[in-house]
């Protein structure tokens, strides 16, 4: 990986780590539904503008229903779950829990899609779940019903992400070649349609005093949609093209570092030994799951024993 690609990887990690900061600023003021809806709405508009500027053809290649449907589990539900969690949990807390996404992918792949679960991956899942337990027991947030529900919301989001990769392949990429950037836009559009009814309900039953919303909340929502979603998706797919999917997934190791750092730096969130213990265990689990499997020797290769 050259220095430019590594710099882009760090930038992507800082943006996705920053998303938990911006949700933590916006959700307690606006509520979970407006925060999630605002993110996907700004994200869709930002991606549309980028695609038009880049001259990308906006075509779903006859798979528009599948693309929009995938948006429910890639953005709609996860962003709502993280917004709900942001009303209770510190930004660093949620970013560490987000790192369990590859572990969920292992469990889901083995349970529903016939993927082989190796002993190494099984150990990774076990260590990762133990890390979640350690984090919730020793982290800086008091354990109560609200905290447990917030942690479950984060894990629900990672569960959606775990399903998303397999369903995207089966429903879309196995049938046609859609530009990944258009797929990203379609997923945000699908999330907009998913969350719109909830936003209408929120507006009717619990109207927000928009005139009294502080500038920091508006800036957080713009950053959440345009930087952490629109620009981050473009950066993500560029990295996949440059260094491959596996190396790009190492961003998962870096996101918690930035999530904890931004929360400490800008929100004054308290650090604790729980971050180090729980986050460290989840990091080890990710290494076990994402580490490339060594190839068996070629049948004609000379023996070395």
Automatic annotation (TrEMBL):
Keyword terms, alphabetized: Membrane, Transmembrane, Transmembrane helix
Membrane topology type: Multi-pass membrane protein
Pfam families named among the record's database cross-references: EamA (PF00892)
Subcellular location: Membrane
Regions crossing the membrane: 41-60, 67-89, 95-113, 122-142, 148-168, 180-201, 213-236, 248-267, 273-290
Top-level taxon in the UniProt lineage: Bacteria
Residues annotated as domain EamA: 10-135, 150-290
Keyword Transmembrane among UniProt keywords: yes
Main localization, broad class: membrane
SUPFAM superfamilies to which the protein is assigned, alphabetical: Multidrug resistance efflux transporter EmrE
GO cellular component: membrane
The protein, known as: Multidrug DMT transporter permease
